[in-house]
Design brief:
Blueprint: H1 3-51, H2 63-72, H3 81-87, H4 156-176, H5 186-189, E1 193-196, E2 201-204, H6 211-221, H7 233-238, E3 243-244, H8 250-259, E4 261-266, H9 269-281, H10 288-300, H11 306-311, H12 317-325, H13 340-343, E5 353-356, H14 360-370, H15 394-401, H16 406-415, H17 417-422
Parallel strand pairs: 2-4, 4-5
Antiparallel strand pairs: 1-2, 1-3
Helix pairs in contact: 10-12, 12-16
């Protein structure tokens, strides 16, 4: 072997050795980085488990999967077997925490509809994933109403009614309610609660139970308008003039929940359902017809014509009920017919005031009196939309229920069974 061959051999072996050394260095760095990353993920998993010890998480869950698990977990009320059998599948009261919506919150294009399954987290609310939440005692203590109002004979009856309603709801939740880690879904729980700081009021929005006029009242109390009668429907629902409780940090939420007067106004579930159907499907609607209508007609109407499939108008009440009761709905739920127990969480948030749509004006005006609102401010009694239509009443509901068979009516009642129980409504004639 001459000198030239020796030189080439040394050069070749040197090159191979250098490449091997570079590969080995990269491999060692990757292993070191991987160990650090795994330790970080294990630490985050451990932190999350400490905060959410009652939630079962697979040991192989990665950071990204933890985020997904948190977003999809449920908070529920535990009920005994006898009540479960009566009410069907009523345990799951929690709802998924949804991503913030990029467009304005609208009533016609409502959060919680289409592919969303429940409620929207308003702009500015950021669920904390690995941050240890502050300690919160659930259920919250109910604040007593202003007893000085009893001295006025005008409000004695209203005061007695409120005490009865609050006591009934409290006893129901005490008997059947057991919460499971509510902090995990705190921002979802309070996402439909509107805040009025001047008079220290929290109002949980229940669509089709006077919510438009209640938002008008809150705007007047906030000094955003001089009269509830001067505020348009667009300003109420599209203007974003009011803050929700979910827009505050944890300390702000907890402080307001424990010191402000908390009110919810409810309605007979069947009346509320029929009212929502009439509003969204019996009038032209640029959102509910193409999103919900088309999907409902396609799945539940045999031999639907092309026009109905294309525009989604003309949905029948029976078809709408089939969609509502379907475990595999073609589109998600919507706040206008979602259960109140999943909108306002009355067994987690002890409401100080329970108003009813059936006695809306007198209940609302009594609440305004209790919180010290200006005496001239009265709850408006006008119909917000479709003012020429007959109001949805018990008689109107009976006409719609006639389209359903007895089994369908029973299933529909079972669907809203918990709302009937919580707010002491009489079951309809089935």
């Amino acid at each position: 072997m001459n000198a030239k061959q020796v030189f080439l051999s040394v050069l070749l072996f040197g090159t191979v050795g250098l490449l091997f050394f570079m590969y080995l260095q990269v491999w060692i760095e990757e292993q070191h980085t991987g160990r650090i990353e795994r330790k970080r993920e294990q630490k985050e998993v451990s932190e999350w488990r400490l905060v959410h010890s009652s939630q079962r998480v697979p040991r192989t869950v990665t950071t990204g999967k933890i985020q997904k698990h948190i977003v999809n977990q449920n908070s529920y009320i535990h009920m005994p077997e006898d009540l479960k059998k009566k009410g069907g599948n009523l345990l799951n009261l929690g709802s998924k925490i949804l991503k913030k919506n990029s467009h304005s919150q609208r009533e016609d294009q409502a959060p919680g509809s289409s592919l969303d399954t429940s409620i929207e987290i308003p702009q500015g609310a950021k669920p904390r994933v690995f941050q240890q939440p502050i300690k919160m005692d659930w259920p919250l203590v109910t604040r007593p109403l202003n007893k000085s109002s009893v001295q006025d004979n005008k409000w004695k009856k209203a005061y007695a009614i409120q005490e009865k309603r609050r006591s009934f709801l409290h006893e129901f939740c005490k008997k059947y309610g057991g919460i499971n880690d509510p902090q995990a879904n705190l921002y979802s729980i309070v996402s439909r609660i509107y805040v009025e700081d001047k008079h220290r009021v929290l109002y949980c929005e229940v669509p089709k139970a006077g919510c438009s006029n209640w938002k008008r009242i809150l705007m007047v109390l906030n000094g955003l308008a001089s009269s509830a009668y001067n505020i348009s429907h667009e300003a109420v629902h599209y203007g974003k003039h009011l803050k929700t409780l979910a827009s505050f940090d944890l300390k702000g939420i907890y402080m307001r929940l424990n010191t402000y007067s908390k009110a919810v106004f409810v309605r007979d579930p069947m009346e509320r359902l029929v009212s929502a159907f009439r509003d969204k499907f019996e009038h032209p609607n640029s959102y509910y017809h193409p999103v919900f209508g088309k999907a409902i007609i396609k799945k539940y109407r045999p031999n639907a014509n092309t026009q109905a499939l294309n525009n989604g108008s003309g949905v029948q009440f029976k078809e709408f009920v089939h969609y509502l009761l379907d475990d595999h709905r073609p589109v998600g739920m919507d706040i206008h017919w979602e259960k109140i127990s999943k909108l306002c969480y009355p067994c987690l948030i002890n409401y100080d005031f329970v108003g009813k749509f059936e006695t809306l004006e007198e209940d609302a005006n009594y609440f305004l009196h209790v919180i010290g609102a200006p005496k001239e401010l009265k709850f408006p009694n006008f119909k917000d939309r479709h003012s020429s239509d007959e109001r949805t009443s018990t008689q109107v509901v009976r006409q719609y229920l006639k389209d359903l068979g007895r089994a369908e009516r029973q299933l529909l009642y079972d669907f809203y069974h918990l709302d009937y129980l919580m707010f002491n409504y009489t079951a309809p004639h089935l």
